[in-house]
Design goal:
The chain has 12 helices and 12 strands. By secondary structure, the protein is α/β, with parallel strands linked by helices. The strands form 3 sheets. It has a 7-stranded mixed β-sheet with strand order 2-8-7-6-5-3-4, sandwiched between helices. Helix 8 crosses helix 12. It is globular, with a radius of gyration of 24 Å. Bound molecules: pyridoxal-5'-phosphate. The site of pyridoxal-5'-phosphate has 14 residues, from helix 3.
Length: about 400
Amino acid sequence: MISKDEPGARTPDVAAPAPVDPGPVDLDHAATTRVRPEVLEAMAPYLGDRYGNPSGSHRLARDAVRAVDEARERVAAVVGCVPGEVVFTSGGTESDNHAISGGMPPRAGTPVCSAVEHHAVLDVVEALDGRVVDVDASGRIDVEALVRVLDELGDDVSVVSVMAANNETGVVNDLDRVAEVVRAHQPDVPRAPLHTDAVQAAAWLDLRVVAAAADLVSLSAHKLGGPKGIGALVVRGHTQLRPLVLGGGQERGRRSGTSNVAGIVGFATALDLVAHERDETNARVAALRDRLADGLLAAVDGAVETAVRDGDRSAVLPGICHLCIERVDAETLLFLLEADAVMASAASSCSSGAQQSSHVLAAMGVAPELSGGSLRLSLGRDSTDRDVDVALEAIPRAVERVRAFG
Ligand code: PLP
């Protein structure tokens, strides 16, 4: 028997550490984002020992009230409003529905919105027989067309809704200009409120500027490192709104339902972090996005940046690169990209997960042969150089394969 120490003894094979799989590349941050560790940490106590219902009157309840009050103050500080103007909701969809309908029963008059709004706005406007205003070729609301619609409607306007930034193309609207038009149209208070869906914008734009232009602002936590199912409707002081969800009278009677305390704390934590890091994050992510967009435009023939004119990306959110690619079927492209560990999307995703044809691109007048090959690549705070490198390899290869399939 050979002892272990003798010459000729075989040392057992030490398995080499398995390479760490860096995981798929997430280029779909506009759909949702990972909950940040700081946010999870802030939420955890309210899912554990501090589980009180703020509607109660004992110690646990008072603890929950304090948490919600503090969160409301933090959200208000980021938005530049007073805490009483922040109404917590179940997220962007509810906030949008509430803002457009004006609550129960719906606000009198005709709601007006732009043609590229998220369905959470557009579908409510259409259900209330409202008016939809055209956008220009880059997807911004056509302000002259808005003036014409407002003139036609006269006093019969219940709300005007124009999103701060679009969820597909990332295009940012000139809200100050829109506010000017709406206020000139109805100088007397009470007037039809201006609502803005800032669900996509909130991770990138200064919300104090957005909220200064609007009377109603929709926000959602899961687009900025917070949990799903929580958001807010900011209702500026002078704006009249009936509740949409009736019941226990929470949120000072403006939105009933037991408060989602952990979600509210998570939302406020995420929004606060985003606001403090905004300048640094925007610069870093925009540089990644520019490298990605420039690389793809150089490598893929027949690719155009959908909302960008003459290479000027200043009016597009830093995280979004939206391309339309000739002779490509978006669904097949996404399938091949996923096989290559790149997660992206074509338009916004609907509940079935299927890619819907885009009402946004149609409103912008993008030809069907181009919009059929739409690709939304959305980066976030945790995007890296490696993500861009992988995408720059995978996307041109996938486009070639789609075209080879015919
Ligand atoms: N508005 C915009 C612009 C969005 O992008 C989304 C989500 O994709 C929503 C509203 C809906 O928000 P939530 O998912 O919080 O209901």
